[in-house]
Each structure stands twice: as structure tokens, then as C-alpha cells.
Amino acid sequence: MDRIYEEAANWLVREPDDAMDWPGFTHWLEADPRHRAAYDELALIDAELDDHSTRLAAARPEPLPVAANDSQPLRWGRWAGMGGGAIAACLALVFALQPVGRDVPIQDYRSAIGKNSQIALGDGSKIVLAPASHLTVQGDQLALEGTGYFDIPHKPGRTLIIRAGEFQISDVGTQFSVGNEADGVSVDVAEGSLSVSSERLAKPIALAAGHGLRADRSSKTIRMTSVDPQQVASWRRGQLQFDQTPLALVARDISRYSGEKVMVDPAIANQPFSGVIAIDEGASPARALAQILSVETRPVDGGIRLEPRGR
Amino acid sequence: MSLESHQGLVGLLEERRAELRRFLVARTGSEADADDLLSELWIKVNTGQPGPIASPTAYLFRMANNLVLDRIREARRRERRESEWTADRHGLHSTLMEVSDSSPNAEQLMVESGEARRLADAIAQLPAGAQRVLRRHKLDGLSHGEVAAELGISKSAVEKHMAVAMNHLRRLLGD
């Protein structure tokens, strides 16, 4: 079978070449139906590479990112709640759970677009998943793609570990939110304290209530933030906070959290927006946004499109 | 015949129809699919306006080959969606929507970024030579000839590296 794959790879690799021997390829396919299956398999991987080439080229391995440690003082800054970017795209990364024993069952929770999901675990932990998020639970090991709010009761001798991208959050009983999104990983503590570790950090960081951490994926920086504990995961109450967020990303968040399909004309896609958008039953957050920004709205197939004035 | 006009391509398709059909039958394993795709190809050739084409015959075969791949991918996507809906208890199906035509919905993005991450991990495990060639060719978009010139190796060495890389990826992603 390995020989078949080798031959299939040779045909695949030469396919874009004008000198490709198409009759020869046809004969090879005709010789054995397994040839076709092997070629399909490789061609699908090849197509996936093409689909993701930009992202993969950008994700080129680089020297290890700067880790936050004692010689590099952390920047403490006021953080304006749930940054639009943080919850913007749902490009959550998939990561593997450390095996903790084969007999511990894995549970999968997914939230749909437009609504939060409430999860109650057997140990009394309560979790709210933001729309379009995915949580895997295997014993005390959790893994998050997207955004979630965790309310974990204290239990002697138990430590819950939540993986979010390259970060692990260890918790013995507290309330906090975690985001594992396109632009990076964020943690905000509303009550109690927890510990964040990562190979990007020289040593684990302890975060107490009112503090948070932002790990930006593109700039590879890690920043400590302070946060109003009352405002942690304000999306649970239907509040989306944005800080200088491009309109296209604001629209994507509104679509994700409200379920209202919002599109943005390319002419205003990069216009920044700062403020709070309320996601309420029955109201159109996109129209509210349009009013604030003085842009036009136009109904389109199943949703709303924001356009510059005077089209 | 180095440059081919639109009319020329249509004529060439007729001329090569039997060969193309034989290829499509071999490629799909089905006469019905092959005939279907052949009509699709005919429509594409008659409505498309390609720029100058260096090798029109190779161009037609590549088009046909791409149509087959598109079909396979569409079938895979459908299977995946269906299995996801079955697995999902939250009624994702009814709430799923496109955020916009050009920006895929969040659910789709999540699937895609999972794919990208798996690919990135697999690429990082490739042998150094194959990895370098694959990155320059597939990710940075250099042609085989350009990669060969840049790395000071022959074009057939580039092809060998690429074939090795693709098979490694298959093994890594198949696990």
C-alpha cells in the first residue's frame, strides 16, 4: 500500500505541470481501484493546504515568543471589559487533552450561534458557554475553544485544569472567564484566585479577583490587565464591549451572540468602534450600531447589511 | 500551438472528448459521474474566459481533475455536517447561519481553524528538506522551478521532496 501512496504522490505533485502525463495517469488509475482512493486521500490534504496556505504561512515557527518574567516588567493596564477582538472571530484552536486515563469518559459540549449554553457538572461546577464555543470535559481536565464563564466550587484536594490554547488555568474554586479565540487567549478573574501556566510563561502566574491576562496571538505578547469583577463575562447579560474594534469584527460578534446575520460593506469594514452593544430579545443590535455610527442599514437575504451613507 | 483562444479550447474539448471521458471514468470510478462532469466541464469551457494558456490540453485535464476534487470535497463536507448535526443536541442546525457570503460562519471557522492547526502541527513534524520545499511551494506559492532555483536543487528533487512531504502528512494526519 505504501508503494501505491508513493505513486499517487508522484502523480499529484506533477499535476500542475504542463508536462503532466495525463494518459499515463489515466492508465495508472485504471490499473487498480485502490489507486484512485490513495490519490483522493492525498489530493484532499493538498486542497486543505491550499485552503489554509495564508494562515499556515503566517503560523511559521518563530523563535520562542517573549515570555513574561521578572526581567520584563508586565504592563498593567485598564482593560475595557470583553474586548471585541477577544470574542471576535471564532477561530478557536483545537488542542489535545492530556490523556488522564482511558476509563474517564470525555464529554463534549457545544453552544450554537445566537445563544449561550449552561452546563452543570456533577461536582457542582457551573459553566456558561458563549455562542459557538466548544468545551470538552474529561474528569478534572477541561479544554475550551471559544469563550466561557466558570463558577467552580472549592473542593479540598481537587484542582480543575482548563486548557485554552497554549495556556492551562489551574483552579481550586473561583469564578472567572476564559477566552480562547482567533486573536488570543484571555483570562479574567471575578472572584477568588487561580494560576495560569504556559510554555510561553517563565513561571506560572497567580491571578486574583479583579485581574486578568491577555495573550495576543499575532504579536505574541502577554499583558496583565485589571478588570472590574462585575464586568467579567458581561456577554452573559447580553452586553458586548468593544474597544477600537474594526466594524467587521463587531459585526461578526453581533452575529455570533445575537444570531442576527450582520454584514458590513467593505468600505467601512475597518472603521473602529468603541462602546457597548446590548443584545436584547426583540431588538436589532445591528440597527442600534448603525444609529451610533451614522451608517445605513439595508435588509439583505436573511439579515442586515451596514453600508456607508449616501449609496 | 502555444496560445489558445476561447474558441480553440471549445474545439479542443470536442477533439479530446474521448480521452477526457476515459480519464474521468478512471478518476471517479463511475461512468455516470464522468458524463456529468464532462457536461460541467463543457459548460465551464464555454462560459469561462481564460487568459493565455500555455498548454491547453493539460489545462483541460486539470480542469476536469479539479471538478472531481470539488465533488469529493463537497461530499465530505456534507457527511461532516450531517454527522455533526446528529451529534449535536442543541439544535445547531436550525440556528446555523452564514455571517456573510465572504466570511464563513463561526461554526465553519471553528472547523477550519481546527484543520489549520492540525496541518500546522503535521507540517512542523516533516523532515527538514521536505518541510522547506513544501512551505516554499504550497504555503508561499513559489513554483517548483522557483523553489529549485532558490534551494539550488533540481526540479525533480523538488518533486521528490513534495511527494515525500505529502505522504508524511497523510500518515501524520491519519493517526
Automatic annotation (TrEMBL), chain A:
Residues 108-193 form the FecR protein domain. Pfam families: DUF4880, FecR. One of its GO terms (molecular function) is sigma factor antagonist activity. Keywords: Membrane, Transmembrane, Transmembrane helix. Residues 6-42 form the FecR N-terminal domain. The chain crosses the membrane at residues 79-97. This is FecR domain-containing protein.
Automatic annotation (TrEMBL), chain B:
One of its GO terms (biological process) is DNA-templated transcription initiation. It holds the Pfam family Sigma70_r2. It comes from the Bacteria. Keywords: Sigma factor, Transcription, Transcription regulation. GO terms for molecular function: DNA binding; sigma factor activity. Belongs to the sigma-70 factor family. ECF subfamily. This is RNA polymerase sigma factor. It comes from Sphingomonas cremea. The lineage of its organism: Bacteria, Pseudomonadati, Pseudomonadota, Alphaproteobacteria, Sphingomonadales.
